[in-house]
């Protein structure tokens, strides 16, 4: 019976969060934009054919402006920029989301360990966190994904390995705040172990904020992914938006002022990043009590 | 900086105690930085030797070498030695400034990095300086008149530029301004060899890369200046200053701004890692012959030793600048000293 009560409470809490979130117009706009883009990315195999990415089957002229069946013109190989953009969204979103999950996962574990155990665990982990916080993460990620075999997996790993410190610090401070409350002491007094305190009390209290932070982090991961792909560590056979811009620079599309090739990937990155930030800000305002009071 | 808030605290500790506290602080920070530098060196070693892509595989990825030649290469780079021996060899060479030879350029990595250092220092230095000036000026105006049209416009504009990918902004600026300014390199070969024309040409080449970097960087300074000014807005000493009959401009420039500046000073140093990342992409777009372009070339050519050297130098530079920032903040902010 207790389980059903707690689930009722959780559902009510989720309802409250949604009510507050949907009152925030920019948050809703961001969510709507994301919904459309994710839907397009998921439906890409139905809307179009992946042979559109094959250089040998390209039908258009080389670097032609929009027109003649190509809504956004063609790239330097005669492929449709619109098709590239559509298929690129899959890679950009996939890498952005997976890398963020990885970095947030690592950051949460490190953060909880630091705050929960304190002492030398905290001293060591804090040093490591500060160390990674200071390092130029883009350089480290670029080196890492070059040393590993190039491709999407390496990029995900490289972003995950360099982006976790901010989450770790956030989770640490939040865990410290939670653990100083009396109900944790009560739990200890009743004989709870580390696993129980962390799993039943700390994580449920910390995770909502981590979730808001994740949404904001996706924006960063997508930017980093596009930058790494732009620097040429991506997989040429699986073009992301950053890879498109890499090809554009290499093929001289910039000096040719091929705006139909330059603008769409950049605008797409910008729109997705902005949408994630809008969602994240709105979520944070709902879930972070300190921001709510203002 | 003539802040009125530097009056001695009531329970001033004796001078000698404070000095030893200061020495401990400095030693702690320097020690931490030395440990971090050591970790960077170790990281550089392991990244290129233990991870699956070992240097020889990285080097021979696009070639078809026989097993004998690969073994030859292994011997030449000392990779047939046991790992601890390799590590000692690596460290002792590194401490003598020897970072090995670049595979692509066939030159010592240290020489290459030294050659490419100054263009990056010039680009990053000028861009940082300009973005600090622009950011502080706009941040002060925006924060002082919170919610005004200027505030909303400048903050929104800066945030938009900040969230755009740096390299894309660079490419757009290149496409737009390519007819007015040079877009490749740092110096035309046919510039007269005398001093003034050379300087003028370098500055001419600097315009677009610098503009790109400033566009991305200044938002941070604007936001931090704006928010720290907002925090000072309700402070009692501002009421006092107004009660003395000071004009609004003077209250702002003599009392509020000097105190609000402190967080910005730390930001300049903390942000350097971000600035380095921006410089890499901007230099790639404009073929600016600095460390960033060198990194791009090393990535493209899978040049292991060069990548390793660049990682060490860039990470080391950022660590050292952070240390300087920490020490400097202690000098200028009495509150940090008291803590």
Key structural traits:
A: 294 residues; mainly alpha; elongated; B: mainly alpha; MetI-like fold; globular; disordered N terminus
Write a concise synopsis of the structure shown:
With 294 residues, chain A is mostly helical.
Write a structural description:
The complex is a heterodimer of chains A (294) and B (339). Chain A is mainly alpha-helical and 294 residues long. Chain A contains twelve helices and no strands. Chain A has helices spanning 2-23, 25-47, 81-117, 119-134, 137-147, 152-163, 165-179, 182-189, 194-230, 241-250, 259-287, 289-292. In chain A, helix 2 (25-47) packs across helix 11. The longest helix of chain A has 37 residues, at 81-117. Chain B has 339 residues and is mainly α. Chain B has two domains: 14-95; 109-338, MetI-like fold, CATH 1.10.3720. Helix content of chain B is 75%, strand content 0%. Chain B has 14 helices and no strands. Chain B has helices spanning 15-49, 55-59, 67-76, 83-95, 109-144, 149-163, 166-177, 195-232, 236-243, 248-270, 272-286, 291-301, 304-332, 334-338. In chain B, helix 10 runs antiparallel to helix 13 (304-332). At the A-B interface, helix 4, helix 5, helix 9, helix 10 and helix 11 of A face helix 1, helix 7, helix 11, helix 12 and helix 13 of B.
Secondary-structure blueprint:
The complex is a heterodimer of chains A (294) and B (339).
Chain A: H1 2-23, H2 25-47, H3 81-117, H4 119-134, H5 137-147, H6 152-163, H7 165-179, H8 182-189, H9 194-230, H10 241-250, H11 259-287, H12 289-292
Helix pairs in contact in A: 2-3, 2-11, 3-4, 3-6, 3-7, 3-9, 3-10, 3-11, 4-7, 5-6, 6-9, 7-9, 9-10, 9-11, 10-11
Chain B: H1 15-49, H2 55-59, H3 67-76, H4 83-95, H5 109-144, H6 149-163, H7 166-177, H8 195-232, H9 236-243, H10 248-270, H11 272-286, H12 291-301, H13 304-332, H14 334-338
């Amino acid at each position: 019976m207790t389980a059903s009560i707690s689930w009722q409470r959780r559902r009510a809490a989720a309802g409250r969060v949604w009510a507050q979130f949907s009152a925030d117009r920019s948050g809703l706009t961001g969510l709507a934009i994301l919904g459309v883009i994710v839907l397009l990315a998921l439906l890409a195999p139905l809307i179009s054919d992946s042979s559109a990415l094959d250089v040998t089957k390209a039908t258009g002229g080389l670097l032609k402006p929009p027109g003649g069946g190509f809504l956004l013109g063609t790239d330097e190989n005669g492929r449709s920029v619109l098709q590239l953009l559509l298929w690129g969204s899959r890679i950009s979103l996939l890498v952005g989301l997976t890398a963020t999950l990885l970095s947030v996962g690592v950051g949460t574990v490190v953060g909880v360990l630091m705050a929960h155990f304190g002492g030398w665990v905290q001293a060591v982990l804090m040093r490591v966190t500060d160390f990674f916080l200071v390092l130029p993460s883009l350089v480290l990620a670029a080196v890492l994904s070059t040393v590993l075999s190039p491709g999407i997996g390496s990029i995900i790993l490289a972003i995950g390995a360099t982006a976790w410190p901010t989450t770790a610090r956030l989770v640490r401070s939040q865990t410290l705040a939670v653990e100083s409350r009396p109900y944790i002491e009560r739990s200890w007094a009743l004989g709870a172990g580390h696993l129980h305190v962390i799993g039943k009390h700390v994580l449920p209290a910390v995770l909502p904020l981590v979730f808001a932070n994740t949404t904001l982090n996706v924006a960063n991961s997508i930017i980093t992914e596009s930058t790494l792909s732009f620097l040429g560590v991506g997989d040429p056979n699986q073009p992301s938006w950053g890879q498109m811009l890499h090809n554009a620079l290499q093929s001289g599309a910039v000096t040719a002022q091929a705006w139909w090739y330059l603008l769409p990937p950049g605008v797409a990155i910008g729109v997705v990043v902005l949408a994630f930030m809008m969602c994240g800000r709105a979520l944070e305002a709902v879930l972070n009590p300190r921001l709510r009071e203002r | 900086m003539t802040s009125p808030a530097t009056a001695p605290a009531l329970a001033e500790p004796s001078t000698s105690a404070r000095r030893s506290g200061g020495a401990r602080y400095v030693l702690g920070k320097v020690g931490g930085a030395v440990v971090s530098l050591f970790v960077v060196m170790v990281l550089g070693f392991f990244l290129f030797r233990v991870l699956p892509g070992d240097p020889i595989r990285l080097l021979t990825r696009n070639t078809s070498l026989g097993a004998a030649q690969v073994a030859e290469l292994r011997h030449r780079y000392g990779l047939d030695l046991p790992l601890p021996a390799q590590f000692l060899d690596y460290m002792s060479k590194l401490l003598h400034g020897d970072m090995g030879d670049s595979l692509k350029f066939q030159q010592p990595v240290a020489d290459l990095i030294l050659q490419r250092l100054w263009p990056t220092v010039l680009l990053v230095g000028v861009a940082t300086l300009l973005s600090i000036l622009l950011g502080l000026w706009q941040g002060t105006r925006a924060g002082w008149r919170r919610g005004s049209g200027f505030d909303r416009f400048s903050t929104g504009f800066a945030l938009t530029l900040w969230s755009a990918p740096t390299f894309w902004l660079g490419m757009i600026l290149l496409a737009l301004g390519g007819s007015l300014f040079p877009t490749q390199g740092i110096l035309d070969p046919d510039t007269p060899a005398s001093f003034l024309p050379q300087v003028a040409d370098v500055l001419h080449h600097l315009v677009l890369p610098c503009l790109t970097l400033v566009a991305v960087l200044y938002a941070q300074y604007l936001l931090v200046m704006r928010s720290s000014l907002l925090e000072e807005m309700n402070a009692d000493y501002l009421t006092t200053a107004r009660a003395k009959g000071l004009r609004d401009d003077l209250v702002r420039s003599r009392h509020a701004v000097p105190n609000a500046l402190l967080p910005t000073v730390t930001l300049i140093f903390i942000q350097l890692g971000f600035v380095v990342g921006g410089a890499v992409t901007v230099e790639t777009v404009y073929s600016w012959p600095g460390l960033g372009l060198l990194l791009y070339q090393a990535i493209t050519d899978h040049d292991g030793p060069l990548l390793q050297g660049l990682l060490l130098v860039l990470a080391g530079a950022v660590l050292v600048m952070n240390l300087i920032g920490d020490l400097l903040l202690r000098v200028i902010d009495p509150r940090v000293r008291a803590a």
